[in-house]
Amino acid sequence: MTHGNCPSCSGRSASPQSSAWCASLIGCAGSVASLYVSYTYDLAAGGSVVVVLTALFALTWCLAPRHGLLAKLVRRPDPAAPLPAGP
């Protein structure tokens, strides 16, 4: 299962098992990437893990298809909604 095929990552409804697999894959990939950054730049491993996984969380929070910050900025207003009252 890859990141692009994971229903929970792509915004479709998913079972708890597929969500757990997707979260595990993202966590493992982030941990491996952070250990690589730690080794390459001679940094503390624990701090690198925290920074990289926090950055991944912030990225997924911003790009979430339903509730992310980008989705809220791009979302169009409902044309059937009543117009706000004027002054």
From TrEMBL:
Major localization listed first in the record, in broad terms: membrane
Pfam families for the chain: ABC-3
Keyword Transport among record annotations: yes
UniProt superkingdom: Bacteria
Keyword Transmembrane: yes
Keywords on record: Membrane, Transmembrane, Transmembrane helix, Transport
Membrane topology: Multi-pass membrane protein
Transmembrane segments: 20-37, 43-64
Subcellular localization: Cell membrane
Protein family membership: Belongs to the ABC-3 integral membrane protein family.
Name this protein carries in UniProt: Metal ABC transporter permease
Organism field: Streptomyces olindensis
